Amino acid sequence: MATYHLKTPLSQTDVEQLRIGDVVYVSGDAFTCRSRLHRWVLDEGHALPQAGKDRDLLIHVGPIVLREENRFKLVSFMPTSSIRFEKWGARAVEQWGLRMIIGKTTMGQETMDMMKEKKCVHVSPQCVSPNSWVQNIDITDVELFDELGTIEATWSMTVKELGPFVVDIDCQGNNLYKNHEKEVDEARDKALKALGIDPDFQYTKLY
Amino acid sequence: MISREIYEEVIFQAIAKGATTIAPDIRQGFENAIRRETKPAAKEGLEKTYGSILRSAELRNPACPDTGWPIFYFKVGNECRLEGGMMALEEATRSAVRRATREGFLRSTMKHPLTGFDPGDNIGSNVPNFTYQFVPGDSMEVTYVAKGGGSECFGGTRHRVVAFADGVKGIEKFVIDSFVEATRSGGICPPNVLGIGIGGTANIAANLAKEAACLRTLGSKNPDPQFARIEEDLYKALNSLGVGIMGIGGDTSVLGVHVEYAYTHIAGICVAISSNCMVARRGSFRITADGTVEEMDSPDWFGGR
Asked: Which of 88-147 (A) contact B at CB < 8 A?
């Protein structure tokens, strides 16, 4: 496992060298997106906000931002679960030209296949520590605030040494969590046996 | 008579406290988990999370930006008199939620379920939500719970009806399998406080599970030995899974397991689970009839636990 300090725009080489388990810090320009922006663009046919056209680093996040005179104050920031965006994941990677997604949890097979084809990675924090990141982020702009509301709007950010995040999907089609799942499944069978329950226990079928 | 000015301010303080801090029992849970963790990545994750939570208490910013569903539990004395009555209490709570959202203690998270409309103040149909318990005396206790979306939406909160023929084995199998599914890639932000409701209709079991997860003092035991044994057995079993913080692998998968029960129908046993994320947030205060306000470490919702 290696540690990388990367800058946007990210090159194909930047992301191709990354492997699951590697640690990443990233600097440069990013934009944010949750369900409504995915739907707005990919289902309803609206144009991608300018921030998305210019940037290849997407963050799945709904930050708390207070609007103060002439500036935006970021109060709290923690990447959110990416798996809920799976329906749009592959199209977002392909059509928006993404190189890296900062999120939480993971994404499904369809998105992983597209990431492999287009050279994009998914990274996530292995903790919930919003105060680790607020000082590394400057909010520069917001689009679709009136249409989508404060947490679903597209925030433009300049980030500096944002991390550490762990690569959980790499460009080779590997998923960090899939490997761990096997260990947990084995532990589950042992845990059930310890409780006196056959791992193949069948419930009485009530419905 | 407790004035509206006092109880509205106290409800606001409960939100601010609940969003920005974790209670002493949850802090103890973190410290125990950090001490016994043998996997370096998991230990680091726990330390960073705990450090960030403690920092939020100093900064008075949300310990997690997902401040979740705003839910309120009121323990109301039978002789308690509130200015404006119970309808005013609910109106004051909505007003406190609006203020807390405006001031950045709550994220504008509540949306219309079909259109996605964001009112911007976390107020809408059946939100915030209220639960009442009536007790002797003339005081009132309020507890605000920030029920995060991760632990609620990704499989950590669900129910199943188990036949009497399957009994405790059926109940425990459901809990273990549900938890394994829900913690794949860290969806419900483990290590969790797991609440389990056994018996009643589906909604009764689900409410008991939610209250067990969010209101019980961490590490407290059910006084009935049959249920205490389920708590203990599942605590050991779930922590043997190696799920760890955010599902990355580690020694602690649950901070606690709390079971509550209701009598059930002869036809079957509803079992519900409710997971609280590791940033298990709540804020409780007591207001006595003379307007004295007292901060509470634990809601003591189940009387002694």
From this structure: 104-106, 124-132, 134
Same domain (yes/no): B131, B180: no
Q: Give the chain B residue nearest A79 (alpha carbons).
A: B65
B contacts of A84 (beta carbons < 8 Å): 153
The answer, yes or no, to whether residue B89 has pLDDT greater than 90, is: yes
Cβ of B221: how many Cβ atoms within 10 Å?
Answer: 17
Q: What per-residue confidence (pLDDT) applies to A71?
A: 87
Per the structure, the count of domains in chain B is 2
Chain A hits for B150, CB-CB cut-off 8 Å, are 80-81, 104
| Among the listed residues A108, A111, A138, A106, the one whose alpha carbon sits nearest the alpha carbon of residue A124 | A106
Compute the mean pLDDT over every residue in chain B, rounded to the nearest whole number.
Answer: 97
Q: Which residue of A has its CA nearest to B246?
A: A126
Please name the residues in contact with B297: beta carbons below 8 A apart, sequence gap of 6 or more.
Answer: B23, B24, B25, B284
**What ipTM, to 2 d.p.?**
0.92
Judge whether residue A163 has pLDDT over 90: yes
**Containing domain of residue B10, as a range?**
4-23+60-148+281-296
Length of chain B: 305
Chain A and chain B share a number of CB contacts under 8 A equal to: 177
CATH of the domain at B14: 3.30.360
d(CA A37, CA A49): 9
Task: For residue range A60-76, list pLDDT tens digits in order.
Answer: 999 989 888 888 999 88
Burial of A61 (0-12, 13-18, 19+ CB in 10 A): buried
Q: Count the helices and strands in chain A (H runs, E runs).
A: 7, 9
Dump pLDDT digits (tens) for B262-302: 999 999 999 999 999 999 999 999 999 999 999 999 999 99
Domains and CATH numbers, chain A: 3-176 (3.20.130.10)
How many CB atoms are closer than 10 A to CB A92? 25
Find out whether A119 and A171 touch, Cβ atoms under 8 Å. Answer: yes
Query: CA A136, B250, B35, B63 torsion: positive or negative?
Result: positive
For residue B120, list chain A residues with Cβ-Cβ distance below 8 A: 149-150
Hey, which residues does A121 pair with through a beta bridge?
A: A100
